[in-house]
Amino acid sequence: MTRRARAISLGVAVLIVSVIAGLLVGPVHIAPGAALRWLVSLGHPPAGMSEQQAAILGNLRLPRVIVAALVGASLSASGAAYQAVFRNPLADPYLLGAAAGAGLGATIAVAFGPSDAFAVTVPVAAFIGAIAGVGLAYGLGRSSPGGRSATSLILGGIAVASFLTAVQTFVLQSRTEALQRVYSWILGQLGAASWSDLGLVLPYVLISTGTLLLHGRLLDVLAVGDDEAASLGIRAQRVRLTVLVAASLATASAVAVSGLIGFVGIVVPHIVRRLTAGSYRVVLPLSLLGGAAFLVLADVVARTAIAPAELPIGVVTAFVGAPFFAALLWISRRAIA
Amino acid sequence: MSRLILRALTVALDGREVVHGVSAEVSSGEWLAVIGPNGAGKSTMLRAAAGLLRHGGTVEIDGVPVSGLSPRARARRVAYAPQVPAMPPGMTVVDYVLLGRTPYLGYLAREGRRDREVAASVLDRLDLGAVTGRQLGALSGGEQQRVVLARALAQQADVLLLDEPTTALDIGHQQQVLELLDRLRLDDGLTVISSLHDLTVAGQYADALLLLVDGRAVATGRPTDVLTEATVSTHYGAAVQVSTGEDGRPLVHLVRRS
Question: Which residues from B are below 8 Å from A when comparing CB atoms?
Answer without folding.
Answer: 47, 50-52, 70-76, 78-82, 85-92, 95-96, 99-100, 102-103, 105, 107-108, 110-111, 135, 155
